[in-house]
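Why do we care about 3D structure at all? Because function follows from shape, and shape follows, mostly, from sequence. That is the central idea of this module. The next example makes it concrete: a single protein chain, its amino acid sequence, and then its structure expressed as tokens.
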Amino acid sequence: MSKVSNQTVTVQRLKSSDPGFQKTLLDSLSLPSADDHAIDAVVISILADIKVGGDEALIKYTKQFDRLSVNRVSDLEIKQVDLEAAYRSLPSEQAKALEFAAQRVRAYHEKQKEAAGCRSWEYTEPDGTRLGQKVTPLDRVGIYVPGGKAAYPSSVLMNAIPARVAVVGEIIMVVPTPDGARNPLVLAAAHLAGVHRVFTIGGAQAVAALAYGTQTIPAVDKIVGPGNAYVAAAKRRVFGTVGIDMIAGPSEILILCDGSTDPDWIAMDLFSQAEHDELAQSILLCPDPRFIDKVNESIQKLLSQMPREKVIRTSLQNRALLIEVGDMSEACQIANVIAAEHLEICAQEPQQWADKIRHAGAIFMGSYTSESLGDYCAGPNHVLPTARTARFSSPLGVYDFMKRSSLIEVSEAGAQTLGPIASTLAHGEGLQAHARAAEMRLKKK
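And the structure:
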């Protein structure tokens, strides 16, 4: 545990009625970008090296960044028997918790597959023309699981299980293991989730290997999973060669509270995201200034008890916000501007406020629904859009591992109806071959 500190942490306080509040809020949501160009330059070089050098370049970067001394990339692959052994080695309590979480995540995504347009469909028109959509899983996907500062078996479940539910042909997982430190929970999660192959590589070089393929690692069709700034930059660069889920930024939590929840609970929920990363952001919206005072008191009281106190302190001081709003309706309006990754509604009647939310990665309703339950075992996916991208993006799901093809079978009778329409529009666009192709199928009168 970190050394206990009596130092007060200063968290920025705002009022929605303050002049210039909207600008101050948006400025506070922005991330510093001073290092972006330097990161991009490094990533571009790594991607180019892996694309040309394959296994040899991958070994070079693995030695450099993870300090692993290997001569072949095949030495970095963890066999299925070792994944199972890691699972068998877990203490009973951990194994049961992992199994329980996996079962709930799988059940949720099975329901999602049924309800979210993940099945083929078609219909036939009166003239015999058949139209529809064919839904098929991806052939091969790559799953990036963070390693290093912390281990995330939950990320394995959240990325791999929906891919399995989608019936993806092959799932290849990459996870960095600096200095050779392998986390048994991560490997056990890979076994439970049904990952096909696991390689102990990370960083931009792992993304490059998945995107371009090497002599040992086959190229995938899509890469999913969060990582550090270098991983995010690499995913952005390889998009187009492969698909990606999203560009994940630092974690975020936004709490809407009417003042009816224990302030200690709210403080701990703010900590739960702040402990991820110094750049993580925790925000409280509340109409009761006295309750905000109580939450601030709880922050000061509880912070020194946290093993990751230093990370939480930095995050709170640099990026957290305690915002007094006029009422809960205004809190919902501001929440739609923030479009947070995690949105908690800690209120007596949470549904009425959830109905007003349009933009959020995941909505946690009621005082007993801590965000941490969603991270591990509630069932819905915890891979969520960050940095306001919830305005146009969705959580990772079964649908991310499937693609849709349109089905069109025009009958002879249908061609007589559609042909003249297509011909007219094609001539209007100056595309005569298009028009002629339709016209040639018309019956001569």
